[in-house]
Amino acid sequence: MSTKALIDSAVFNSTTSGRKGLADKLFAHWFSRLVYAQIWEDPQSDLDALQLKPGANILTISSGGCNALAYLSAEPAAVHAVDLNAAHLAMLNMKQMAIKHLPDYQAVLAYLGNANQADNLKRYKRHIRNHLSDDASNFWESRSLSGKARYHYFASEAYQHGLLGNFIGFAHFFVRLMGGDMSQLMQARNLQEQTQLFEKYVAPVFETRLFRLIASQPLALYSLGIPPSQFEALKKDAKQGLHVLFKERMRHLACDFPLDHNCFAQQAFARRYNTRQQTALPLYLQQQHFSSLRQNIDRLHAHHTTLTDFLLGQPRASMDAYLFLDAQDWMDQQQLTELWQEVTRTAAPGAKVVFRTGGSESPLEVQLPADILAAWHTDPQHNRQLYLTDRSAIYGGMHLYTKR
Questions:
Q1: What is the pLDDT of residues 137-192, one digit of tens each?
Q2: Would you tell me how many other CB atoms lie within 10 Å of the CB of residue 356?
Q3: Mean pLDDT computed over every residue of the chain
Q4: 362-368: long-range pairs with CB below 8 Å, 24+
Q5: Which end of the chain is more exposed for a tag (fewer CB within 10 A), N or C?
């Protein structure tokens, strides 16, 4: 099935009507290209929540691929990365083949970490090109709007591409236009200075009349991957207005974690990874995990399908961990029920599910049938603590469910 057909099947549901129907169509069209060059859910929080034993079978959404690769450090039997968007699977395949075929860690760091060296074109042609899947090769060899083949991204700040990369670039421009400067955060030497610089250079922008107007428009958030249904969940949590909600989430990203331990802040405020500081890199690019990732790289399997359709083909009690990112925010009650019927059937005893939500509340408590919900346990207080550990800081909730 094509990317368009898969995304349409996910976005269009029983809630697609009226003004939301038009918004759903616009979002589906917008989302059918490369959105995330890197992922925006913290894999360290995932691994802390899951407490995986070696040999686990894991299902995750691919997105930019960083987390699917990071889970290989837990010595799983298999990581199955599912995505509706073929561009995301092409990004995953590029990263997977780079880790597998580039000569050493330093070459991988230059290619995937720095992602801005002219020599990366040679690395691609010599070591990666001939190993890509057919679909990934077609994506990377095709030309972008610049007229160059897309593999040139890795010689020109790869993570500044895609809809989210473009959005972050626009955010920097917009904040400067409003008299602020997001890049000033990178001058901070400690958490106290991070807070001071945020209050001086970023926070005031959220109170401007223009930002308040933009924040109220669902279309303005499509490049963040926020569909109309998730926008409604955000509004429910925004008791003081969406501009305040967005400011407090940005504050969490900017002020609550040391910058040299937060790869998400590095991308948000510096628009690149700091390759001179190991702790500032995504988990999958840290040297301490390189050997295990390379050793386990063939345990990663990509699937261009929906979560539910993938699970329909899996045996009963065969999966140990599920990572759904924020995909359930897209679903209506029927879609959610059909997914969790298969999750419950395929879950091994003690299996765990981790997901994020745009709002603070889990949709499962009010939407799943009682018999399905009874098969699972969750602890809202523990979930809140998990949320506070997620360095990406863009969601309202992180939730862990365990099979009884």
A1: 999 999 988 899 999 999 999 999 998 999 899 999 999 999 999 999 999 999 99
A2: 26
A3: 92
A4: 362/397, 362/399, 363/328, 363/329, 363/331, 363/336, 364/328, 364/336, 364/340, 364/399, 364/401, 367/333, 367/336, 367/337, 368/336, 368/337, 368/340
A5: C
Strands 78-83 and 57-61: parallel
In this structure, which long-range contacts are made by residues 166-171, counting pairs with CB atoms below 8 Å and at least 24 apart in sequence? 166/223, 167/223, 167/224, 168/267, 168/268, 168/271, 169/271, 170/223
Query: In 176-195, which positions are buried (b, 16+ CB within 10 angstroms) versus exposed (e)?
Result: eebebbbeebeebeeeeebb
Taking a C-beta distance cutoff of 8 angstroms, is the pair 52, 99 a contact?
no
For residue 299, how many other CB atoms are within 10 A of its CB? 17
User: For the chain, how big is the Rg over CA atoms in Å?
Assistant: 20
Query: CA-to-CA distance for 246 and 223, rounded, in angstroms?
Result: 15
Residue with tokens 């539910």: 308
pLDDT digits (tens, 9 = 90+) for 210-249: 999 988 877 766 656 677 677 777 778 778 888 998 999 9
Q: Are strands 347-357 and 397-403 parallel, antiparallel or unpaired?
A: antiparallel
Distance of alpha carbon 307 from alpha carbon 327, whole angstroms: 9
